[in-house]
Specification:
Number of helices: 4
Helix content: 25-40%
Strand content: 15-25%
Structural class: alpha+beta
Shape: globular
Largest sheet: 5 strands, antiparallel
Oligomer: single chain
Length: about 180
């Protein structure tokens, strides 16, 4: 759960990944690729928030299908542009699976739905480390999910609060 209400302003600069820049190996590269920052505020109030505990990869697959078939249509977002829906579902699955794979139990995912888009928030108990995007890794070995989510979303980041480590991504919804 996000501590502050999601109202008022659009995502600010500095929370978007720098696109098409060569990867440089240095200690701060993780901060550059996946910044430590709270999520952006959005212009409208949250229309609906759904939260789910996660313990197995199979739950993520079921949730992805459930989102497409039941959750989004029930909130009036059934007319969402297909590209936006694909970005949402891919980012949702990538962040959820990273939470299970690299986080510490308990792991949960929340989806905050607004008129402008969606905020995905994965919370886990691994507060001793932030998300670590792969650097200089052969794509055949995987580990490029955070890079993919960064490219698909308007903003992304992570922060720690009393609930645990939050890894979030914000997807802007186009008008249908």
């Amino acid at each position: 759960m996000i501590n502050e209400p999601l109202v008022a302003a659009a995502p600010t600069s500095g929370r978007n990944v720098v696109r098409d820049q060569p990867l440089v190996r240095r200690a701060s590269v993780h901060q550059t690729l996946w910044p430590k920052s709270p999520p952006p505020t959005v212009r409208s109030a949250v229309a609906k928030t759904q939260r789910w505990p996660l313990s197995t990869p199979g739950e993520i697959t079921w949730l992805r299908m459930h989102l497409r078939d039941h959750i989004l249509p029930s909130t009036g977002q059934a007319q969402t542009h297909e590209d936006d829906l694909d970005r949402l579902l891919l980012a949702f699955e990538e962040l959820a699976s990273n939470g299970l794979r690299h986080g510490r139990a308990p792991v949960a995912i929340a989806l905050h739905m607004t008129a402008e888009g969606w905020l995905i928030d994965v919370v886990d108990a691994a507060t001793d480390r932030g998300p670590i995007p792969a650097v200089d890794r052969d794509p055949a070995h995987g580990g490029l999910g955070l890079h993919l989510v960064a490219r698909l979303c308007a903003a992304h980041g992570w922060f720690i609060d009393t609930q645990g480590k939050h890894v979030w991504a914000y997807i802007v919804r186009r008008s249908p």
